[in-house]
Amino acid sequence: MDHLSTLIPECLDLIITHLLLNNRQADVATLLQVNKTLAATALRHLYANPFQHPFHAPNKDIYNVDENGQGEEDRVKKGPLETIDALAGMLLSRCVLGSVPKVVTVAFPELASQDTSTLSTPSSSSLNYMTHIRHLNLCIPIAYTWQHEVLNTGSPTTTLAYLWQKEFSSTCGVADMLYSCRRRFNLEYATVALYHQFFRVQLMREVNWMLVNGFCVVGRSGDEDDRDGVLLGQQLKSLVIPASDMARYLEAVCQFKSLEHVQVCLDEVWVYPEEDVEAALEEDDDTPRLLKRNEDRKEQAMQDLLKFVQEHGRIFPGQLKTVTCPESNIWEPWWWASLPQNCPEEVQFRLSQSLPPLKNPSVLNKKNWMQFLAYPRETDLGAVWKIDMPLGWGRLEAYERVVENRGFLQRCRRLRTLMVGSLGKRAYKWAVEEKKAYLKNNSGGNNNYNDKRQESLLLQEDEIEDRHLYLRHGLVPLEKADIWGLEDLPLKDMDEIDDIAYAFSETLTTLSLNMPYTLNEDFLINGYEPTPMWTIRIGRGWIDLPNLRDLYIDARIARLFLDPELLVHCPNLVSLDLYDDVTFDYNPVEAIRDEYLPALLSKCESMTLLGWSALTFHPETLSSMRERLVELSMQTVCGRDDLCFILPSPLGAADESLRAGVRGGEPIDDDDELVDQLLEQEQEQEQEQEHERPGPGWYRWTWDWELPQLTKLKLNSKFAYEFQFRFLASCPLLESLYLNIHTNLEQTRDLDRSVMSIPGEKNRMNVLQKLRKLEMLGGWTVVGGDAFLEELLSRLCPNLEHLVAKHWNGVTPSGFLSILRKKDPISQNESPSMKPLYDEQQDRKECNKVRKMELAGKQMSDGDTSELIANLGLGLMYMRGDVDEEEVLQDVEFKLECSQYYVLKSP
Fold first, then answer.
1. Beta strand ranges found along 518-654 (DSSP E)
2. What is the CA radius of gyration of the chain?
3. Stronger pLDDT, 387 or 484, i.e. the higher one
4. φ and ψ at residue 758, rounded to 5 degrees
5. Range 228-255 average pLDDT
6. What is the C-alpha separation between 467 and 464, in angstroms, rounded?
7. Mean pLDDT across the stretch 674-688?
8. 175-211: per-residue pLDDT in tens?
9. Which of 203, 239, 357, 863 could form a disulfide with 378 if both were Cys (CB 3.0 to 4.6 A apart)?
């Protein structure tokens, strides 16, 4: 006897469950061939939920391979429909079906000739599959159906013939689609796909009902008379019900005595996008009738769904636990015909009110959120460790109920992850008060965070105002907080984020804030210089957060102001991301005023600052990032065509421009006052340097820090304009460099040998062996022209693969073409003797040339592009459509302005 058979049933169940959780269904299936004991146990697990997704996921890992192991391009695809259809056909053959609808016999011709009117024990196998089914989740992956079953392999001839019959077209529902949508499918293959889609929907509806309403054959012995049957619906615990077929399930509700979970599949199109409705109203007089008919059908389906849940609760009180109605989009593969369908929130809430309260939930998310809102006071939250409120619920009345009952957060004493929208001012004051009370009573001690106790925390009136819950249950051990402002409830007061940082300072590891992206009129009109809708300030009252690793704040169209000591309280940050989308231009006086203090961030690996947070950052903080910083981005907001704002500098040379009223190409107000303030600041800075006192960070961008681990550097505006290339000597691992100084002003930076030289060695240029991508936008002037360009790039970055050079001065397209790869490098497996024209030195040089190049600018666009290419490229450049693919170098591209060109192997 094998060792598995000697295990007690409980151990064997655990082993099989573990295998299935790791998608090892094939291993479990092999147990069916060992012996009856193992087969019975494996069968029970395999067929408890036979249509679950992992059993029928597309196989993307199987290739056609030859004897040498070389894989072909075409995969051997085994789509989900093939396995689903085979399984459904087998199960239907073991049920008493009665009459079989035409759509089913088309898909399963063998059922048409089978006698399904009497019970019969299957003779081909002694295994009883049907009696093990507890979950019938037959929800066909329709998106995969369209793309792979129809367009790639085509439908069977019998199916195609049935699709064009009037019997099908008159009942499938295509006639109920708006004309503006049907018109999109006028191509032959699209029409086939459309009809096939309706066929699959109708087939799923009928097969699901036949399985639920069919009798399973149960043969207790070999005796023909010793047989019985059981209705499959009576043993089901979970079921997917098509919304269009809800009426039939309502009539049979009394048979679902074991049902606990229902998922409604929105398998019809009831609601259309506004643009489709408007187009249909103009093109088809029958549109109002179709819209009214679809609305009535939706209303009827929703009413049947409500009655089903209510009747089930009346007949089997407390049995049905959950009813979900997720968004459905059966037209997803055709993006131009995307028609997502949703269950109205009012219906969802009424469904939840017809169900019992959640029982000891551990997670609150979109699947059970409505049910919780139906019974916020009756739900025990003692085991909740994660709250994930559905995004976008700020417009719902249900969300208002959350705000009204936000005291539920205080009852989640084991909460570790919180992802919610704004709950309003003072939403977390209870946590602040608990923290203050604890610090007062336990100064210097360890926080009493409750990790183990799980007590019943049903809401009691005396607990609502109880500020000492932590004495009984411990402080809440929150680790991750993700707060977002909603369009209808914007975060205008930031006490929520500040309260969270203070109250959970000891345990918080991740803190993020996302503001709503509601565009105001000024933003839409100006485009490149938006007017902030409001400002937000973060960091007031923060204390040390020793475990905070990730800080993410996206203020969107609000200007972001940070408390000067915010970063000082976060010494162990690994990732820092601070954004706003409104800071295009700047006033140095204001930036210096709002500057935050230098901080020690020795563990930081990635820092991305955009907007005001970048302008007020103190550069001395970079001195502490030497060991780990990998990615650094310092930018202000760019306008159209990557235009950014750079205040003319140095002040002595820019004084006349400023007094002329120039700012980003447009007049500015109070320019005299601004210039005077800047000059005064510069004088103060010079005086401070004379007395060896550190000045404001605004003047201390010396670029003399060492960041040996840096691989990605992205700068624009002031930061790119003041960038010193000598800094690159301390970044040997740099792979990507982005510098943007493109402005409406004719501000330039020279690129010559002295700028690129290693500090202290004027004759030696920096060498960045790892640099693969270089993007430099704006008035970069190559001193020496085309002759120096190749030397500059070949020495600075000899392994460069992607170059973006826009609006450069002093060079021509010809100069750039000289550094573009003109042939494939010699293969390592190819002998040099096999290439008669092989030049080892030339081939090695070719290997180091750029594969992808993007150019733009005034010098690049003068005259006709095609004529320019003809004169410069000597016939080397072609549009991809003008030449055979095999004649073009792979992955070698040349983009001039908006035109894309490719390089021929043999010019």
1. 534-538, 550-554, 558-562, 575-579, 606-610, 631-635
2. 35
3. 387
4. -70, 135
5. 89
6. 8
7. 57
8. 788 877 777 666 555 677 777 778 888 888 999 999 8
9. 357
Evaluate whether 499 touches 481 at the Cβ level (below 8 Å). Answer: no
Cβ contacts of residue 500 below 8 Å, gap of 6+?
428, 431, 478, 481, 483, 508, 511
Which residue type, as a one-letter code, is found at position 347? V
Segments of 52-106 assigned E as strands: 63-65, 71-75, 95-96
Residues 225, 233 contacting (CB under 8 angstroms): no
How many helices (H) does the chain have, and how many strands (E)? 34, 31
Residue 315, CA distances (Å) to 104, 237, 257, 318 in order = 32, 16, 8, 9
Report the alpha-carbon distance of residue 208 to residue 204 in Å, rounded: 6
The count of other CB atoms within 10 Å of the CB of residue 259 is: 20
CA atoms within 13 A on the CB side of 492: 7
Instruction: Tell me which amino acid residue 543 is.
Output: I
Residues 783 and 750: beta-carbon distance below 8 Å: yes
Task: For residue 140, give both structure tokens.
Answer: 């066909």
| Distance in angstroms (rounded) separating the CA atoms of residues 810 and 748 | 11
Tokens of 703: 């670029």
Eight-state DSSP code of residue 599: -
**Contacts of residue 157, Cβ cutoff 8 Å, sequence gap at least 6:** none
Measured in residues, the chain has a length of 907
The backbone torsions φ and ψ at residue 551, rounded to the nearest 5 degrees and listed phi first, read -125, 120
d(CA 357, CA 240): 22
Say how far apart CA 704 and CA 683 lie, in whole Å: 23
**What amino acid is encoded at 34 in this protein?**
V
Secondary element (H or E) of residue 681: helix 671-690
Nearest-angstrom CA–CA distance, 452 and 447: 14
Question: Cβ atoms within 10 A of the Cβ of 868, count?
Answer: 20
Which one, of 509, 458, 521, 516, lies nearest residue 480 by Cα? Answer: 509
- Cβ atoms of 64 and 72 within 8 Å: the answer is yes
Beta partners for residue 671, in sequence order: none
Task: Return the closest-CA partner of residue 486 out of 530, 518, 525, 440.
Answer: 518
In this structure, what DSSP letter does residue 87 have?
A: H
**pLDDT of 217 higher than 90:** no
145-185 confidence digits (pLDDT tens): 444 444 444 445 677 788 888 888 788 877 788 877 777 66
- Output DSSP code: residue 73: E
DSSP line for 619-646: GGGGGGGTTT--EEEEE----GGG----
Question: What is the rounded average pLDDT of the residues 882-907?
Answer: 68
The C-alpha angle 897, 902, 903, rounded to 5 degrees, equals 130
Query: How many angstroms separate the CA atoms of 895 and 907, rounded?
Result: 18
Domain boundaries, given as residue ranges, for the chain: 4-46, 80-337, 357-495
Structure tokens at 168: 């099908």
Largest separation between any pair of C-alpha atoms in the chain: 109
What is the rounded distance in angstroms from the CA atom of residue 269 to the CA atom of residue 277? 13
Q: Pairing mode, if any, of strands 606-610 and 95-96?
A: unpaired
Closest CA to 803 of 819, 814, 791, 787: 819
Q: Which residues contact 46 (CB under 8 A, 6 or more apart)?
A: 25, 28, 29, 32, 132
Instruction: Spell 669-689 as b/e; 16+ CB within 10 A means b.
Output: eebeebbebbeebbeebeeee
Question: Which pair of tokens denotes residue 258?
Answer: 């074991």
Here the tokens at position 566 are 């915010």
- According to DSSP, the residues that pair with 416 across neighbouring strands are none
Give φ, ψ of 390 to 5 degrees: -55, 135
In this structure, which amino acid lies at residue 841?
Q
Q: How many CB atoms lie within 10 A of CB 714?
A: 19
What's the CA gap between 20 and 24, in Å, rounded?
Answer: 5
Q: Can you tell me the distance from the alpha carbon of 604 to that of 550, in angstroms, rounded to the nearest whole number?
A: 9
Please provide residue 751's backbone torsions phi and psi, each rounded to the nearest 5 degrees. Answer: -115, 105
